[in-house]
Write a structure and sequence with these properties.
Spore Coat Polysaccharide Biosynthesis Protein SpsA, Chain A; three-stranded mixed β-sheet; 11 helices; globular; about 20% strand; alpha/beta; five-stranded mixed β-sheet
Amino acid sequence: MKIDLVYLWVNGNDPKWLAKKNAYSTEEKIEIADLDCQGRYADSDELKFSLRSVEKFANWVNKIYIVTNNQTPVWLDLSNPKVKIIDHSEILPAEIQPCFNGLAVENFMYKIPELSEYFLYSNDDMFFNKPLQPDFFFAADGLPFARLYKYKHNEFEGKWRLMWKNFRNQLDYWKFLNFNVARKVEKVTGKFYGSLPHHNIDGYRKSDFAKTMEVFAEEVKKTSFHRIREKDDFFRGCVNYYSLATKRAYLLYVKSQNSLVINVDEKDYEQKLSVYKPELFCINDHPNVSNKDRIRMRDFLENYFPKKSEFEK
């Protein structure tokens, strides 16, 4: 099977892009810092190193699509036939542009022209850490694996409105988003999945993605008009839950040895990687991260993935 790879990428350091985005960012709309923090948009060349990890550990990937908002990484070699920039205008309805909400953009990525039926989706801060084959993401019959943590978020049942008042950090916001879409799937299918999806590279079938967005068309439409993240956004996490509920995916529970998340402001990335030896890892930005932390992270990635990839000039 041909398996493509999709990224969403933004350079939040670009003054032109930043001015455009700030026109839609108001204090009234931003209820907690994480919805519109610098870490949502900061670019520390993570994409460059993620692509190095792809070349090193998953060179079977077919085409690589990088979805952007009228931007291109300066180091990217566009002459490479394996990689292509997809502008928001190619997949987003005109009436919702410009859009600075990555969750809303994700809902339309299955519309990428010529995207293969089987594809991986990765944030630019996610990395392969070991040689992996397609069967890590897809079973022999072609169905994807939906990877969930064993942590249960059933605790939000009946409490989320009260608890939301106390949500101030990235982790709680992420739990809330997933709880919200899990409840929407329950209303449609009668099945509630109380575990969080892992925050790392996932495999999808384009047809499953499209079906989910069709079933939840009203939620997709509402989120598409949220140019900046809002607390009730509908996002691709629903594809995992809905595919499981309709037997279009297989459930796998993950541990840190499979899928490790490291925060940018942690002090020793290499030690954590050496302890868990994960197959995939993510170095996650959040509201408490400083630019000093980001510089340290970039230096680490340069040393961890030192070999220039075919995707670079």
